[in-house]
Amino acid sequence: MKPVAYLNNPARLAVIPALLVLLLAGAAGFAKPATDKVAEGKRAFAMCATCHAVTADAPRKMGPNLFGVVGRKAGSMATPAPSPALKNSGIVWDAKTLDAFIASPRKTVPGNRMPYGGMSDAERRAAIVAYLETLK
C-alpha cells in the first residue's frame, strides 16, 4: 500500500484529527491546572493565616486583612497601623510585588514591621499569590 493511497481513504483520514486530539489532551495533563495551584496556595497560606485574615468581614488580626489585596495600595489599611515604610513605599499590590514581598519583606520594603524572613521557594510563592488573587 502506498502512503498516498492510505490518505485518500476518508475513513482513515478521520483518524488523524482524533489522534491529534488525544496527543494534545495527553500533553495538557502535564500542565498543572490553575485550580490545583490555588488549592496549593491556600494550603501554603495556612502559616500566614496566623497574622492575616482573608475574608471581608473577618475580625482584626496582627497583620492587615488580605481580602482584596491585589490592586490595593500598600499600607492603605487603617488597622493595624501600617509601618511608615510600607505606607510610603508607593507599592500597589500585584502578582509581581506580592511575590517579591513574600520572598523578602525586608528587602522589598526596608523598615516594614512584618516579622517574617521570607520564602525562597518560588513555586510556593507563586501558589500563594495565585490564592491571594482569588480573594475578591
Question: What's a quick, concise take on this entry?
Answer:
Helix content is 46%, strand content 0%.
Features:
single chain; 136 residues; mainly alpha; Cytochrome Bc1 Complex, Chain D, domain 2; 2 domains; elongated
What percentage of residues falls in helices of 4 or more residues?
40-55%
Average of pLDDT: 85
Radius of gyration: 24 Å
Strand content: under 5%
CATH architecture of the largest domain: Orthogonal Bundle
State the order of secondary-structure elements, H for helix, E for strand: HHHHHHHH
Could you please say which CATH topology of the largest domain applies here? Cytochrome Bc1 Complex, Chain D, domain 2
Q: Which word captures the global form?
A: elongated
The number of distinct structural domains comes to 2
Determine the structural class based on helices, strands and strand pairing.
Answer: mainly alpha
Extract low-pLDDT stretches.
22-29
**N- to C-terminal separation?**
62 Å
CATH superfamily of the largest domain: Cytochrome c-like domain
| Secondary structure tally, helices | 8
| Beta strands, count | 0
